[in-house]
Write a structure and sequence with these properties.
With 178 residues, the chain is α/β, with parallel strands linked by helices. Helix content is 15%, strand content 30%. The chain contains 4 helices and 7 strands. It is globular and about 45 Å long.
């Protein structure tokens, strides 16, 4: 099977930590857009769940054996479409809807990874998003992950590529149950 490349490559942050995801572990690409993060994991042999309110940009993957595509508008009050399911990795890039945090964390399997990156306060000087509802507060990802997870890497910085932005990023491993 040939996997079509996304218009943009997977984020450098995701590429950097992709090898930490257990081989063959199922990956959830949340708010997947065109699937640039998920396609990277699929090319490495990971079963994949793609979730977005508009899945038309990943329609080419509908017939792929190891791909499940879920269309759900999580901001419209629909229930979480993955109750009780957990993943070797949950990947979120350039998306923030705070009411989903409990669901996102509950979806990371014991020993699994959360790879998350999105815009942070300070991004408003670069343009969109500029609404505080869509910008992480200082160290917000650290505050979110530390109680349940071991933080492997964290950054809060201004980047220049693919366009200037203020971002926050975390890679964290869910602690195993004792």
């Amino acid at each position: 099977m040939s996997i079509r490349q996304a218009k943009e490559p997977a984020s450098g942050w995701v590429q950097r930590f992709q090898t930490l995801v257990p081989e063959g572990g199922q990956v959830l690409d949340l708010a997947c857009g065109g699937g640039r993060q998920g396609r990277l994991f699929l090319s490495r042999g990971h079963p994949l769940v793609l979730l977005d309110r508009d899945v038309s940009k990943v329609a080419d993957l509908r017939t792929s054996v190891n791909v499940e595509i879920i269309e759900a508008d999580l901001e419209a009050g629909q229930p979480w479409p993955l109750p009780g399911r957990s993943f070797a990795a949950v990947v979120v890039s350039n998306y923030l809807h705070r009411p989903l945090f409990p669901h996102i964390l509950a979806s990371v399997a014991a020993g699994g990874l959360l790879i998350y990156e999105t815009f942070a306060v300070g991004n408003e000087k670069f343009g969109r998003p500029s609404n505080p509802d869509f910008l992480l507060k200082p160290e917000e990802l650290l505050d979110l992950t530390r109680p349940l997870m071991q933080v492997i890497a964290y950054e809060e910085l201004e980047i220049q590529a693919p366009r200037p932005a203020k971002v926050q990023r975390v890679v964290a491993r869910m602690k195993k149950q004792a």
